[in-house]
Amino acid sequence: MGTGREVFGDALPVAERYAAFLAEAGVERGLIGPREVDRLWERHLINCAVVSEAVPADAHVVDIGSGAGLPGIVLAIVRPDLRITLLEPLLRRTTFLEECVEALGLDNVEVRRARAEEVVKEFSVDVATARAVAPLERLARWALPLLRPGGELLALKGERARSELDEAEPVLKRLGARSAELLQVGRGMVDPPTTLVRVVAGRGEVVGRRQRAPRRAKGSRKRSS
Predict the structure, then answer these.
(1) Where are the transmembrane segments (predicted)?
(2) Nearest-angstrom CA–CA distance, 24 and 113
């Protein structure tokens, strides 16, 4: 499957420093489990990096419940055109994120200690991301108010993605979602491909739900062969 060089290209050295930071400080502070160290690249870094395929160029992205910076920091590394806000309510995690951002020299990233519902009046962003934060039904309530009309929630989900989407449909309708669908990104790079639930903010009911692979965003970093 895909290697770090293929996914991160010229940004691989930065990704390697981030992986080392996760394997050391991340484990010491309880943000990453010790058993995850041996599979940081496949399960975490590459799995998150391929999300960039679904993110439009020059977008402002809010990563909700950023934790150890997955996927927010990874997106900032692989896509320097993006402006990333890492939104995290816990002090020990925001401290970790701030140290990590400084150590990696990521000038396209800001760290904000807050819950999504506390900053709803401050944000009108293009994309909200989340990984292992909450069921879609609850996550949508936090994320959609942060999005501009037509903005997108990209939620990394696992085997229950379809079930979560079905269960969340009434909530998405009440929130005025324009559409909701399953996407698979990273084909040929991760096995299985990363599954996203994409919800488009707007007025009106959910009108489309299908599973497909997105086209590569115009501003995506070109992978080296």
Answers:
(1) none
(2) 23
- Classify residue 200 by its DSSP letter: E
Amino acid at 209: R
| HSE value, Cβ hemisphere, 13 Å, CA-based, for 184 | 13
What pLDDT digit, counting tens, does each position of 118-150 carry?
999 999 999 999 998 999 999 999 999 999 999
C-alpha–C-alpha distance, residues 106 and 59, integer Å:
16
Of all helices (H) and strands (E), which one includes residue 175? none
Annotated binding site: 65, 70, 116-117, 131
What is the Cα–Cα distance from 97 to 69, expressed in whole angstroms? 7
Structure tokens at 211: 């599973």
Q: What is the pTM of this model?
A: 0.87
Q: Measured between alpha carbons, how far is 185 from 161 in angstroms, rounded to an integer? A: 14
Query: Can you read off the two tokens belonging to residue 70?
Result: 């997955």
Torsion of CA 98, 99, 103, 109, to 10 degrees: -10
